[in-house]
C-alpha cells in the first residue's frame, strides 16, 4: 500500500503537466497550410489569437488572414463558416496592432518565394474577382455578387468591387443593393458613366423620385451635361410636383445655352404637364430646329395632333343612329381624315429617325397604322403592318 501511494503521488504531476496550455506556433500553422492540412493550420492559428504571448502580435493576425483567405479561395476546402469575413477582419486587426510595420510582413510559398503583405491580400481578392467574373458571365448573378462582396470586405475603398457588385446586384434583381454599391462607387471617386448613372435611373424606374432626384444631382456635379441625368432630374421634379423649381432650372439652362436642344425639349415636357400646350409645341419645335433628328421632340410634337384626333373619334363613337347623327358622323369622319392627314407627316418623320427602343417603335407604328386606316391608305397600312409583324407585334 505504501508503494502504491508513492505511485499515485508521482502520477499527479504528470496529470497537471498534461493539462498545461500548449504554446501555439504560427510558423507551424503556415507549414500545415502549405502541406494542405487546412484544419490543422486553422486550429493552430486560432489558438494563437487567444494565446497570451501571440494574441497581440500583428503577425499572428496577418498569418490568420492568409490562412483563412487561402482556405476560402481553395476549391478543395469546403466550410459553412464565413471564411472571407474572418480573413478580412484578421488583416484589419494586423494593421491595428502593427500599423505601418504590417506592410513589412510576408509569408513564403512552397518554393521559398516571398509573398509580402500587399501581394497576399491582392492574391486573395484577385481570386474573388475572377470567380465573380466567371459566375457573372455564367449568369449566376447571386453567386457573383457574393464573390464581389468578399472583395469589398478586403478592400473597402476599391471602386472596382463596388462597380461589379452593383452590376451583379442589378442583374440579380437585388435593386436596393445595386443602388447601394453603385452610389458608394461614385462617392469613392468612380467615374465610369454607366455605373455613375445607374442609381438615379434605377430609383426613377422604381418611382423613388426623391432618391432619383438626389442621385441625379450628385452625379450632375461631375457630369453636368449628361442628358439622361438631366432628364431624370427634371422628370423627378415634375413627378414631385415641384414645378416652380423645374421651371427655374430649365429657364436657367436655356439662357446659359440657347443651342441646347434637350433643354428646350424638357421645357416642352414641363409645359405639357402644366397643360400649356401651345408653349410646349413651340418648345419641341425649338428643339427640332437645333437638332432635326431629335426623336423624342418629334414624337411629342406629333402627339398634339393625335390628341385632337382622339377627341374627334370619341365624338363619333358617342353619336346615336338617328338621321341627324348620321350626317354629323359623316362630318366628323371627314374632320378626322383631315386631322390624320395633318398628323401623319410628323409620325412618318419620326419613323425615319433613330427610335430609342423596340416598344417605342411598336407604339409609333400602331399609331401610324390607325391613321392610315382613317384615311383609307391601304398601301401604307400594309407597309407598317409588315414592319409590326417583323417586330413580333402584328396583333
UniProtKB/TrEMBL annotation:
InterPro entries: O-mannosyl-transferase_TMTC, TPR-like_helical_dom_sf, TPR_rpt
Superkingdom: Bacteria
Annotated GO MF terms: mannosyltransferase activity
Alphabetical keyword list: Coiled coil, Repeat, Signal, TPR repeat
Coiled coil: 267-343
First and last residue of the signal peptide: 1-18
GO BP term, example: protein O-linked glycosylation via mannose
Gene3D superfamilies tied to this protein: Tetratricopeptide repeat domain
SMART domains: TPR
Start-end of each TPR repeat: 125-158, 261-294
Alphabetical list of Pfam families matching this protein: TPR_19
PANTHER family given in the database record: PROTEIN O-MANNOSYL-TRANSFERASE TMTC4, PTHR44227
Descriptive protein name: Tetratricopeptide repeat protein
Amino acid at each position: 500500500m505504501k508503494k502504491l501511494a508513492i505511485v499515485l503521488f508521482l502520477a499527479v504531476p504528470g496529470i497537471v503537466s498534461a493539462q498545461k496550455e500548449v504554446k501555439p506556433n504560427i510558423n507551424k500553422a503556415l507549414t500545415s497550410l502549405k502541406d494542405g492540412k487546412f484544419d490543422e493550420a486553422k486550429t493552430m492559428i486560432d489558438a494563437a489569437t487567444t494565446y497570451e504571448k501571440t494574441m497581440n502580435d500583428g503577425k499572428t493576425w496577418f498569418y490568420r488572414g492568409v490562412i483563412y483567405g487561402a482556405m476560402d479561395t481553395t476549391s478543395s476546402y469546403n466550410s459553412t463558416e464565413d471564411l472571407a469575413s474572418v480573413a478580412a477582419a484578421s488583416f484589419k486587426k494586423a494593421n491595428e496592432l502593427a500599423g505601418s510595420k504590417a506592410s513589412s510582413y510576408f509569408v513564403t510559398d512552397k518554393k521559398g518565394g516571398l509573398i509580402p503583405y500587399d501581394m497576399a491580400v491582392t492574391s486573395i481578392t484577385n481570386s474573388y474577382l475572377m470567380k465573380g467574373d466567371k459566375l457573372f458571365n455564367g449568369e449566376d448573378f447571386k453567386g457573383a455578387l457574393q464573390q464581389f462582396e468578399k472583395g469589398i470586405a478586403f478592400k473597402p475603398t476599391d471602386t472596382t468591387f463596388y462597380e461589379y457588385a452593383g452590376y451583379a446586384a442589378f442583374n440579380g434583381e437585388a435593386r436596393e443593393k445595386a443602388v447601394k454599391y453603385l452610389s458608394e462607387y461614385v462617392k469613392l471617386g468612380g467615374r465610369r458613366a454607366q455605373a455613375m448613372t445607374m442609381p438615379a435611373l434605377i430609383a426613377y424606374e422604381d418611382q423613388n423620385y426623391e432618391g432619383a432626384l438626389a442621385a441625379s444631382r450628385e452625379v450632375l456635379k461631375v457630369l453636368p451635361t449628361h442628358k439622361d441625368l438631366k432628364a431624370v432630374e427634371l422628370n423627378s421634379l415634375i413627378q414631385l410636383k415641384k414645378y416652380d423649381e423645374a421651371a427655374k432650372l430649365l429657364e436657367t439652362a436655356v439662357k446659359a445655352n440657347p443651342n441646347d436642344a434637350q433643354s428646350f425639349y424638357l421645357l416642352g415636357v414641363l409645359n405639357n404637364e402644366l397643360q400649356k400646350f401651345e408653349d410646349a409645341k413651340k418648345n419641341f419645335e425649338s428643339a427640332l430646329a437645333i437638332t432635326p433628328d431629335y426623336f423624342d421632340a418629334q414624337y411629342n410634337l406629333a402627339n398634339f395632333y393625335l390628341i385632337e384626333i382622339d377627341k374627334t373619334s370619341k365624338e363619333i363613337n358617342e353619336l346615336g343612329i338617328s338621321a341627324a347623327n348620321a350626317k354629323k358622323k359623316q362630318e366628323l369622319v371627314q374632320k378626322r381624315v383631315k386631322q390624320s392627314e395633318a398628323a401623319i407627316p410628323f409620325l412618318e418623320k419620326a419613323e425615319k429617325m433613330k427610335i430609342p427602343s423596340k416598344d417605342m417603335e411598336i407604339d409609333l407604328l400602331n399609331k401610324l397604322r390607325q391613321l392610315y386606316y382613317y384615311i383609307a391608305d391601304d398601301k401604307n397600312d400594309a407597309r407598317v403592318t409588315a414592319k409590326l409583324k417583323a417586330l413580333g407585334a402584328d396583333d
